[in-house]
Specification:
heterodimer; A: alpha/beta; Glucose Oxidase, domain 1; TIM Barrel; 3 domains; 24 helices; B: 89 residues; Histidine-containing Protein, Chain: A
Chain lengths: 581, 89
């Protein structure tokens, strides 16, 4: 029996976007450059050259189209990739070799294969990794040429003609740009994590996705039945009738619940006894704002700025920072937009050619985020100037990540002041009183939150890292992930310490970690006094629903009860008692 | 024939973007323009040739132009090289 005959094959991956989808597989593959050896009689050589030229013309048209799409989506600089492809296509070196090979009696396909092989072999000898890797650009162009020669169309996501579940190794912005959104019911990919491009696209389209399935592409075929369960992070191939019916039921319940939640969109996040909290959204890029507003967010509690550094080979300019931030600030007016300065590790930055940082044995505790920014103040200042300038276009605040001691805030503020001085000299406007906050995600800062709170305008708790650092647990490591517990007595006490310290200093305290978007923790956090919850936009209606269902008095009681617990059993008991109160 | 030694002064070296810039500028001239580095001689109108040079920051390249507009060609190349391709130096 081949695997495809078996029913209910379960594959486990990473849940990247919630929901359940049932449908047929659309296998989206990258095609390979294949060798087709064919000789051409002498009298046909001219025709063969004509064929080559026609393919070049078609490829040119395709590249121009890509260029326009890329520049529309990602900005002009990104479209430079297509520029380089165009030059490769017109390159005298490639063309001369190809034509010479055809004149020797080879088919155009074979000539392209051979000419490309010769060039890529030469590239393999280059010492510098960056230049060596450019051979992939040449192979990309050769593949395109080959496709046009063979008259084959590349399967793109624009080809989806019936509602399907897209299965692919990975999805890039170039793949999803042409996607016919209405036809996609879900994603399942070999690679990727919770913040991969696939995950973000799925979340913004509100369709389920499971990523990191390792080898799903080799286990499915076109049109195969598949269920994507984005809640549990599993995919079921060839589901039995019974499984399908079970999932269909779950799907219907979800759809009904979702409809109910949508009605909450314009209602405030207020408890029964009238305490209102802010529900904000976490975003990666300006395209997500549409979904943020649709879900009724009252602000952006975390604007991750890393995407600008990850999708390119050169550092973003002040102008690019400004344009990305002001776009969001304008759309979100009058609500606040908290921009977190880059939270990257040195490995990512060195890819941009800024510096050579060796492999770090322990990158999580290494040179990243604010530490990296303070070491490379120019890199930091460019971003700060962009944020400052965006502050006149909306309600913008700055947040420093991974603060571990007060000196870092002071040094960062010094650079911020330099940025302000430069902008004044350049005659560029900014909000002189822009608010500055610190992320509380390192235990050393949580413990002395009272000292930190006096130095900043607001605090925002990053629970993902705070819990990992406090518990010394890597939650991606399956063997120890169970130790990652947001309700651990140590975490609850830290949260209370941070929130109380903020309030004593008259500062607001928010949370932008995953804990803020998990309904099971909302009441406890409310009871601890959290002012602002920031989460993935799709979670907002659920959290609002929970907050509108309790009184502040009940929430405080729950928090107090939980703070008294010394172990897991006691915590479960308190939660159970509260549920059935 | 006109010759001139030019130095790559931008931090990132002659990567894809500057290489495109050189090729696009070179194509505006009728003269043949070649670049010599060590034992290689490549056509300045070939993006692949340029990338194969793998010219990092500090590399010196010998430009050779031959044709009716050879002087203009060389001074244009000089201009974009001395400008660090408009990138951080």
């Amino acid at each position: 029996m081949t695997p495809s005959d078996k029913t209910n094959i379960i594959l486990t991956g990473v849940p990247a976007s919630p929901g359940v989808a049932i449908g047929k597989v659309f296998l989206f593959e990258d095609d390979e450059l294949v060798l087709i050896e064919k000789t051409i009689p002498k009298n046909k050589i001219k025709d063969e050259i004509t064929r080559l030229n026609q393919a070049i013309v078609k490829t040119k048209a395709e590249l121009q189209e890509n260029q326009a799409e890329l520049s529309k989506m990602l900005g002009k600089n990104y479209a430079k990739i297509a520029d380089a492809h165009m030059l490769i296509l017109n390159d005298p070196m490639l063309n001369k070799d190809t034509v010479a090979l055809i004149n020797e009696g080879n088919s155009a396909e074979f000539a392209i294969y051979k000419a490309t092989e010769k060039i890529t072999k030469a590239f393999d000898l280059i010492d510098d990794e960056y230049f060596r890797e450019r051979k992939h650009d040449i192979i990309d162009v050769a593949k395109k040429l080959m496709r046009h020669l063979l008259g084959k169309q590349k399967k793109t996501l624009a080809d989806l003609d019936s509602e399907s579940i897209v299965v692919s190794k990975n999805l890039t912005p170039a793949d999803t740009v042409s996607m016919r959104e209405v036809m996609v019911r879900g994603f399942a990919t070999d690679t990727g994590g919770k913040t991969s491009h696939t995950a973000l696209v799925a979340q913004s389209l509100e369709i389920p996705a499971v990523v990191g399935l390792k080898n799903i592409t080799s286990q499915v075929s076109h049109g195969m039945s598949i269920i994507v369960d984005g809640n549990q992070g599993i995919v079921i191939l060839n589901p039995s009738k019974e499984t399908q019916e079970n999932y269909k039921r779950e799907h219907d319940i979800q759809a009904a619940t979702q409809k109910n939640l949508e009605k909450l969109k314009d209602l405030p996040a207020t408890t029964i006894d009238g305490k209102e909290v802010v529900l904000g959204a976490n975003i990666e890029n300006p395209d997500e704002v549409r979904s943020v507003l649709k879900h009724g967010a009252n602000g952006i509690g975390l604007y991750r700025s890393e995407f600008m550094y990850l999708t390119r080979k050169t550092l973003p300019t002040e102008e690019e920072h400004f344009s990305n931030y002001s776009k969001v600030a304008k759309m979100m007016m009058p609500y606040e937009v908290i921009i977190r300065t880059i939270d990257l590790g040195g490995d990512k930055i060195s890819k941009l050619g800024l510096m050579n940082i060796g492999q770090e044995a322990n990158p999580f505790m290494g040179l990243r985020a604010i530490r990296l920014c303070l070491k490379y103040p120019d890199l930091f200042k460019t971003q700060l100037k962009g944020i400052l300038r965006a502050s006149v276009t909306g309600n913008v605040k700055i947040m420093y990540p991974m603060i571990s001691q007060i000196e870092e805030i002071r040094q960062a503020n010094d650079i911020l002041n330099q940025a302000k001085i430069e902008l004044r000299k350049e005659g560029k406007k900014f909000d002189e009183n822009i608010q500055v906050g610190a992320m509380v995600e390192v235990p050393s800062v949580a413990v002395v939150a009272d000292i930190i709170a006096k130095e900043v305008d607001f605090l925002s708790i990053g629970t993902n890292d705070l819990i990992q650092y406090t518990m010394a647990v890597d939650r991606v490591n399956e063997d120890v992930a169970f130790l990652y517990d947001p309700l651990h007595p140590a975490i609850l006490r830290l949260l209370k310490t941070i929130i109380d310290a903020g309030h004593n200093a008259g500062k607001s305290v928010g949370m932008c970690g995953e804990m803020a978007g998990s309904p099971e923790f909302s009441i406890a956090l409310l009871g601890l006094g959290l002012d602002e919850f920031s989460m993935s936009a799709i979670q907002i209606p659920k959290i609002k629903n929970v907050i509108r269902s309790v009184s502040m008095k009940e929430a405080k009681n729950l928090a107090n009860e939980l703070l008294k617990c010394s172990d897991r059993a006691a915590i479960s008991g308190v939660i159970k008692k509260f549920k059935y109160r | 024939m006109t010759e001139k030694k030019l130095k790559v002064i931008n931090k990132l070296g002659l990567h894809a973007r500057p290489a495109s810039m050189v090729v696009q500028s070179a194509m505006k001239f009728q003269s043949t323009i070649t670049i010599v580095k060590d034992e290689y001689t490549i056509d300045a109108k070939s993006i692949m040739g340029l990338m194969m040079l793998a010219a990092a920051n500090g590399t010196e390249l010998l430009f050779r132009a031959d044709g009716v507009d050879e002087h203009e060609a060389i001074s244009k190349m000089e201009e974009i090289f001395n400008n660090g391709f408009g990138e951080e130096i």
